[in-house]
UniProtKB/TrEMBL annotation:
Residues 274-358, 395-453, 490-513 are annotated as: Disordered. PROSITE patterns: PROTEIN_KINASE_ATP (PS00107), PROTEIN_KINASE_DOM (PS50011), PROTEIN_KINASE_ST (PS00108). The lineage of its organism: Bacteria, Bacillati, Actinomycetota, Actinomycetes, Kitasatosporales. It is an enzyme of class 2 (transferase). Residues 340-349 have a biased composition (Pro residues). This is non-specific serine/threonine protein kinase.
Length: 590
């Protein structure tokens, strides 16, 4: 490593700082030698911040000392060992075991996502660690890949940086209205300030598992406002790579902390996966109606993930990709790439004893309070955030579509537009004529509004080109990696659900290697709709496996169909293109 970043100071007459090896939550981490015991250690130094008032500086110092006291009482092979706490020239230093090896974040950045077995191994270690910490009354409160070390040679998983840990009974660390933690991995109840408990660490572990499996948190967005909205209100979509461990991921990402999967149960389920290759359902989810596989619900009374059949009864729901269900309708709520465009959707499928209106109102107020408080310091307009337009949907759904074959039809760029100012959607006209809808959302950054000659408009990525193929219109990315398709047709028997179920029945004939297909009844902009999602092998070996999202809806006697097909490794981008297309879709001609 040489002498770059070297300090060679000796602190407390004992620890010689030799080289800077990283930066923790509140300071610099040094490789050091313990000259008394003759061993290498890691020393975390709290750096001063001259811009802070004396009271805030003292609170930071106290926080570091609290970290030492919290972690020093823990003994676990997957929790960093704290050897000593010293002060030198009125600055505190935390002396810890030296773990040779980088962080989990470094590993993901270098080697990419891990497979399900490795993710399960990491998850087991961390669940065991937090269970021990929680039993001792210690909360970590900042679990993320950067705070997990992977020891070189042994692969030992070590949870570190309890820099914002809270010992049960200690004063909360959200002083002066500041938010302590990493938003992408922070539980919704912590965002709201309602509560902070062991369950919040378990949510963070659920998001971390998704990152290990897919390369990024499912709550990553382009802005702090987008992240907060994704955590608190938007539909939760675990990555497709999480499918082998889905019962655990869904259980940990349960928005209701009282229904969240516990550490012991999650660890048991992951161990079962390593032993059998199958992840059992969470306790209490077996034996559901139909006698089949148990279900687990994400969101505790909130909008279910597409593909769960819209089931939002008291039992936990959520089915393995591949099942085909058609439960009660639930609104389709797209994940926005940035700021939410409108007020939160009301919770779907409230339990019979609940009062949906009051629960909706309370949840809307809670979300508003969370976002306004968190965004005030970030300079984000509360008016823009909370009084946006529409309900997340652009046109009216329906249609027939399979994943499109690549084509060589004429290519054009479409017409670029800026969209109109946000407006509330107008009432639907009489059923005899199609709705004449004004585009309610401008194209997000990186997109353009395509005014299609087929009689509709929508936002597509700037580099997508138009390619009409018969009655279908495609917008294709360079190299046709992503294929966005649109079809408008007359209403057909069975409506959107029937149309997509018939297409799904023909899936093996139209999409080579078709598997894990599911059609879910839902709604879009208040209109009957169905969502079809499936995976297939692609049209050639070179193209490789692909995944398709397809939403079909019916409005005023016409069916509208929008779908996106993409490589299985690029489903996050595909889902964003899909959601933006639906959110900005408008009918422009009768």
């Amino acid at each position: 490593m040489g002498t770059e970043g070297a300090d060679f100071r000796v602190i407390a007459g004992r620890y010689r700082l030799e080289a800077r090896i990283g930066r923790g939550g509140m300071g610099v981490v040094w490789r050091a030698s313990d000259q008394l015991l003759g061993r290498l250690v890691a020393v975390k130094e709290l750096l001063p911040d001259d811009s802070l008032p004396d009271d805030d500086a003292r609170r930071r110092r106290d926080r570091t000392l609290r970290e030492a006291r919290a972690v020093a009482q823990l003994r676990h092979p997957h929790i960093i060992v704290v050897h000593d706490v010293v002060e030198h020239e009125e600055r505190p230093y935390l002396v810890m075991e030296l773990v040779e090896g980088g962080s989990l974040a470094d590993r993901i950045a270098r080697d990419g996502p891990a497979d399900a077995a490795e993710a399960a191994r990491i998850g087991i270690a961390l669940l065991s660690a937090v269970h021990t910490a929680h039993e001792a009354g210690v909360l970590h409160r900042d679990i993320k890949p950067a705070n997990v070390l992977i020891e070189a040679g042994t692969g030992r998983v070590v949870l570190t940086d309890f820099g914002i840990a809270q010992v049960a009974g200690a004063t909360t660390l959200t002083e002066t209205g500041s938010f302590v933690g990493s938003p992408e991995y922070t539980a919704p109840e912590r965002m709201s300030g309602v509560r902070t408990g062991p369950e919040s660490d378990l949510w963070s572990l659920g998001a971390l598992l998704c990152t290990v499996l897919s390369g990024e948190s499912p709550f990553r967005r382009d802005s702090i406002g987008g992240i907060l909205h994704a955590v608190v209100a938007a539909e939760i979509r675990p990555p497709v790579e999480a499918e082998p461990l889905l019962p655990v991921v869904r259980g940990l990402l349960e928005r209701d902390p009282d229904r969240r999967l516990g550490a012991a149960d999650a660890e048991r389920m992951l161990r079962a996966y390593l032993e059998t290759g199958r992840t059992p359902e969470a306790p209490g989810t077996a034996g559901t109606a139909g006698g089949g596989r148990g279900h687990h619900r994400i969101g505790g009374g909130r909008t279910p993930r597409p593909g769960t059949g819209g089931r939002t009864t008291g039992s936990r729901t959520g089915c393995r990709p591949g099942s085909r269900t058609a439960g009660a309708a639930a609104p389709y709520s797209p994940t926005q790439p940035d700021l939410p465009h409108g007020p939160p959707l009301p919770p779907a499928g409230s339990e019979p004893s609940a009062a949906p209106e009051s629960r909706t109102a309370r949840r809307g107020v809670l979300i508003a309070a969370v976002l306004v408080a968190a965004l005030a310091g970030a300079g984000v307009s509360a008016a823009l955030l909370l009084h946006g337009n529409g309900d997340g949907g652009g046109g009216s759904p329906g249609g027939t579509a399979t994943s499109p074959a690549t084509g060589t039809g004429s290519t054009g760029t479409g017409t670029t537009g800026t969209g109109t100012s946000p407006t509330s959607p107008s009432p639907s006209p009489a059923p005899s004529t199609p709705s004449k809808v004004t585009n309610s959302h401008t194209a997000p950054s990186g997109y353009r509004t395509a005014q299609d000659p087929a009689g509709f408009s929508l936002a597509v990525p700037e580099d997508f080109t138009r390619s009409p193929q018969g009655e279908r219109v495609f917008y294709l990315s360079p190299g046709e990696t992503f294929r966005l398709g649109i079809k408008v047709a007359e209403s057909r028997p069975g409506g959107p659900q029937g149309v997509l179920e018939r297409s799904a029945a023909e899936g093996p004939d139209t999409n080579p290697g078709y598997h894990d297909g599911r059609v879910t009844r839902t709604t879009h902009a208040g209109h009957p709709a169905a969502l079809w999602e499936f995976t297939w092998d692609g049209f050639s070996t070179a193209e490789g496996p692909r995944h398709t999202y397809d939403l079909c809806w019916e409005d005023s006697g016409r069916l509208y169909d929008v779908w996106v097909s993409a490589p299985v490794g690029k489903v996050r981008e595909a889902r964003e293109y899909f959601d933006v297309a639906l959110d900005t879709f408008s009918v422009t001609a009768s």
